[in-house]
Specification:
It is built from 13 helices and ten strands. It is an alpha+beta fold. A four-stranded mixed beta sheet has the order 4-3-5-6, with helices on one face. Strands 7-8-10-9 form a four-stranded antiparallel beta sheet. Helix 2 runs parallel beside helix 6, helix 6 packs across helix 8 and helix 8 crosses helix 11. It starts with a helix and ends in a 20-residue tail after the last strand.
Length: 380
């Protein structure tokens, strides 16, 4: 009889998972045992994570809280589901777990009742999450990821073939419309998680970004956060490329001293021009950061152009300004005294600096220049 009931339960679970269209079809219990429909979070970007309080990854609570504080007002919610299935590292009641997390990490994001994420009693939510994003492997270039791979491979050489949650602090990123976008294993870097969260929070305004983008030639004296530069470049390298050759290389300059040093060379050679500009700070329109794009000397310009447009639009969506610079490129490529700058970029043999994008927080709001719509004809 018990076996029949167990089979019936699993069949019901399978049917529910098969018919579900998004996470909004699921109901979970909060830390007080009350039912909560996940449709409550429609329109939010979600990071769903199974946690434990006695795990080597438990300090990630601090990173999660920092992420929550940074992006909550932009629409991020973190949903915490404690789970005791991995080494019994989430002991105690949900109330005891909550008390531990608030006392040690001051968490503010919602915690839900303890659940199973694998096996016959697993939460239907997690059945669905796993069906949408299976296990993609640990990062073997990461020391912790490599250790986890060896540990699991020792017990089961085929462990990577199933979609089961492997350990505490596995994370799922869910879009504003309830689609499961990505799965992160516990050893994945939180900086990568943040970059994806930030990208998703700003991914719903593509047309606005295109129409509102302007070339910015005045910037605030404020460096761009590294995670935002990462997002911009990741958008760039996902641009179309003929035969997927990806012929370009990209160098992102965050070294303020390097910018200042090469500017000193520029000032000596262009003293009169610099003197005429009372706002002059550096030779890159005073931008705090640069994105340098290099291409093979025998081609690659078209692909590089597509790359650059993607980066400029991504920057616009993040509240950043850009300008494609040609003058500084000609100076750097032709002046021997500026060679140290190019050397620092570590440009491979056979490549040359093609263009530079200045990037930073805008200190101006230029009006749009007119576009000639008469140049467009529709052939029907």
């Amino acid at each position: 009889m018990k076996k029949i009931l167990s089979i019936s339960f699993l069949l019901c679970l399978s049917v529910l998972t098969a018919t579900a269209q998004s996470i909004y079809d699921y109901t979970v219990k909060d830390d007080a045992g009350k039912d909560v429909s996940l449709s409550t979070y429609k329109g939010k970007v979600l990071l769903i994570v199974n946690t434990a309080t006695k795990c080597g990854f438990t300090p990630q609570y601090k990173d999660l809280q920092a992420l929550y504080e940074k992006y909550r007002t932009q629409g991020l919610e973190i949903l915490d589901f404690p789970c005791n299935q991995f080494g019994s590292q989430a002991p105690g009641t949900i109330q005891e777990i909550h008390q531990f997390c608030t006392a040690n990490f001051a968490i503010q994001f919602p915690q839900f009742d303890k659940i199973d994420v694998n096996g016959p009693n697993e939460s239907p939510l997690y059945t669905y999450l796993k069906s949408q994003k299976g296990f993609g492997g640990f990062d073997l270039n990461d020391q912790t990821g490599s250790k986890l791979d060896k540990m699991f491979s020792k017990n089961d050489p085929d462990y990577a073939k199933n979609s089961n949650i492997k350990w505490n602090f596995t994370k799922f990123l869910v879009s504003r419309d309830g689609k499961v976008l990505k799965r992160y294993e516990p050893s994945d870097k939180m900086t990568n998680v943040e970059a994806d969260v930030c990208m998703e929070l700003n991914s719903n305004a593509v047309i606005n970004a295109i129409m509102e983008r302007r070339s910015i030639r005045k910037y605030l004296d404020k460096p761009v956060e590294h995670e935002k530069l990462e997002i911009v470049v990741r958008c760039g390298i996902n641009a179309p490329s003929g035969m997927n050759r990806q012929p370009w290389i990209v160098r992102v300059v965050e070294n303020q001293q390097l910018i200042n040093d090469v500017t000193e060379v520029y000032k000596k050679e262009n003293a009169e021009q610099v003197k005429r500009d009372p706002t002059f700070k550096n030779m890159f329109r005073n931008a705090p950061n640069l994105i340098c794009v290099c291409t093979p000397k025998n081609g690659g310009d078209l692909d590089a152009g597509l790359l650059g447009e993607n980066m400029m639009l991504a920057a616009q969506s993040l509240g950043l300004g850009t300008c494609c610079l040609g003058g500084p490129v000609r100076f750097l490529n032709s002046n021997p005294n500026a060679k140290f700058f190019l050397d620092k970029l570590d440009i491979p043999e056979g490549y040359q600096l093609n263009y530079i994008l200045s990037i930073g927080y805008p200190d101006e709001s230029p009006a749009a220049k007119p576009r000639d719509a008469s140049k467009v004809k529709y052939v029907k």
